Amino acid sequence: MAWIYLGFAGLLEIIWAFYMKKSEGFSLIAPSVVTIVTMIGSFALLSAAMRSLPLGTAYTVWTGIGAVGAFTVGIVVLGEAASLSRLLAAALIVSGIVIMKLSS
């Protein structure tokens, strides 16, 4: 169950990162509220996952899901650059997450 919590925590991290960008520095109310609510949900699920997963594993996987997910949303939704070096960096993050998962 901890891994499911962690997966959903990572998905919420992607959502809050996207809406934080959309909030324009917390100057827009609706995206700011979505950001804060999804942050709280993400942290709550991360906390639940940490009851049975090691700190290093849980935190690494959570931040990795958020980083790669936000990177992907940036490219697909926001039209950010997808250079070879950025794609390679994301692939390295994913490989680190996989290795971390396999070592747990």
TrEMBL record:
InterPro entries: EmrE-like, Small_drug/metabolite_transptr, Small_multidrug_res. It is found in: Cell membrane. It is a multi-pass membrane protein. One of its GO terms (cellular component) is plasma membrane. The chain crosses the membrane at residues 27-46, 58-78, 84-102. Gene3D superfamilies: 1.10.3730.20. GO terms for biological process: xenobiotic detoxification by transmembrane export across the plasma membrane. One of its GO terms (molecular function) is transmembrane transporter activity. Keywords: Cell membrane, Membrane, Transmembrane, Transmembrane helix, Transport. Belongs to the drug/metabolite transporter (DMT) superfamily. Small multidrug resistance (SMR) (TC 2.A.7.1) family. Gdx/SugE subfamily. This is Guanidinium exporter. It comes from Pontibaca methylaminivorans.
